[in-house]
Specification:
Elements: E1 2-6, E2 10-15, H1 18-36, H2 43-63, E3 66-72, E4 77-84, E5 87-94, E6 98-107, E7 113-121, E8 124-127, H3 138-152
Antiparallel strand pairs: 1-2, 2-3, 3-4, 4-5, 6-7, 7-8
Helix pairs in contact: 1-2
Amino acid sequence: MRVILETPEKLVIEDRPRFLAGFVWFMGLAALYAALAGQMRGTGETILVLALGIGACAIAWHFMPFQRFEFDRAGGTFTRTIARVTGKKQETRALSAIRQAASQGEWSEEGTRMERVALLTDDGPYPLEFGYSGSSRSEVIGAINAWLEKSKK
């Protein structure tokens, strides 16, 4: 995630996992091609590789979409655009319902902290990411909170 535009009237953040999503999509499609082109030795191997290809594509589709988050002070809205291979989807919320941005954390079995950005709203936490990441999100959280704080003054 990174801040694309930060003005007094608008804050735009994008989440574009190009490398990871591209790699998972490539591996999934390569497995599907190998299974459907008859390059496997037997039925069991074909079914296994086909299932792995479908699973990889499903993971990339669900967990790695391109996203854009727009905080618009003039319109009083927060808009989330989720772009997947199958199309775009937009969700809009009132900016006044957002109190602040925070880090939602989870500890992995290895003892490392995984986190994702979430907005704390009147309806409860609203996660901006579909999965957790090992990299710190403090820069994005700080930018959102600083921008929201300016609107309260």
